[in-house]
Design a protein that fits this description.
This protein has 6 helices and 10 strands, in the order βββααββββααββααβ. By secondary structure, the chain is of the alpha+beta class. This is PPM-type phosphatase domain-containing protein.
Length: about 280
């Protein structure tokens, strides 16, 4: 198995995305830190999203043989995040104060492949036949689409800068955060005891599997850039495998730089943090 990976800082002061490599356990993942809506930095000038994604990274990279399933591991990590926020005097009853992380992780086993996801990180399985199989779904998609449509409406009304548009969308983004790990909302690893109810997890066999692609949302293509009639995830997977993950990311950044005010391709920031891993099962170990 060959691994190809990349992580790139977006507009923020820190790269809150993290790559997870535990080659001894054939365990790999991407984590996308989510900072609180209430401003927070530690005395080391670290954001909550950075602390959360690094906490997950450290825990999964330290797993050893005989350790529990990924579901059990994430349950323990979620408890650890809760304790960390308690240490920082974060009020766990105030969702706007919570920080956490989205996550997609896989563990390759002799007889299959275990996976787990929460939030909006994605896992795409690509087969020798060319078929692309999303193992996960974007848990925040239905909420973000509402905010994105509000962004588009502002553009239709003639707004032409992010600073003009954001005040019209911000309340919706805040309202979305109140639905973390809640019915009608989305899952995220943020210390709430309900977080475990929103894990997507399971196991697939490896028959015919050629590649596995793990992505944080910073590597998602804008919907408007997908050719008409093309399947979004098939187009994304094929683009990554044809170009390679580094060229794919570079082209995406060029697209983002061409639209700094997020008008042609509506989104909430010019460039988000990026993390991606391509696992090539056709290559040599």
């Amino acid at each position: 198995m060959k691994l190809h990976h990349i992580t790139i800082k977006g507009d923020g002061p820190l790269n809150e995305d993290a790559l997870i490599f535990n080659e001894g356990q054939s365990l790999f993942g991407v984590a996308d830190g989510v900072s609180s809506l209430v401003p927070f930095t530690s005395k080391e000038y670290l954001t909550g999203g950075y602390i959360a994604s690094q906490t997950v990274k450290d825990a999964l990279e330290s797993m050893k043989s005989g350790d529990p399933s990924l579901y059990e591991a994430l349950t323990r990590i979620n408890e650890r995040l809760h304790m960390k926020m308690t240490e920082y005097q974060i009020d766990g009853n105030q969702k706007e104060q919570l920080w956490g992380t989205a996550l997609a992780a896989v563990r390759v086993q002799d007889n299959g492949l275990e996976f787990i996801q929460t939030g909006d990180c994605m896992i795409l399985a690509v087969y020798e036949s060319g078929d692309v199989r999303p193992l996960t779904r974007l848990q925040v998609e239905h909420l973000e689409e509402t905010a994105t449509e509000m962004w588009r409406e502002c553009i239709r009304r003639g707004f032409r800068t992010k600073d003009e548009i954001m005040p019209h969308v911000k309340e919706q983004l805040i309202a979305n955060r109140q639905l973390s790990n809640a019915e009608g909302g989305y899952g995220v690893l943020n210390g709430e005891k309900e977080a475990v109810n929103y894990f997507e997890y399971g196991k697939i066999n490896k028959v015919g599997l050629s590649h596995l692609i793990l992505l944080s949302d910073g590597l998602f293509l804008p919907a408007e850039s997908i050719p008409e009639g093309e399947s979004y995830w098939e187009y994304t997977a094929c683009s990554i495998l044809e170009k390679g993950i580094k060229k794919y990311a570079a082209d995406l950044i060029d697209l983002e730089e061409s639209d700094p005010e997020c008008i042609t391709y509506p989104r909430f920031k010019k460039s988000d943090d990026k993390a991606g891993i391509v696992m090539d099962f056709g290559g040599e170990t």
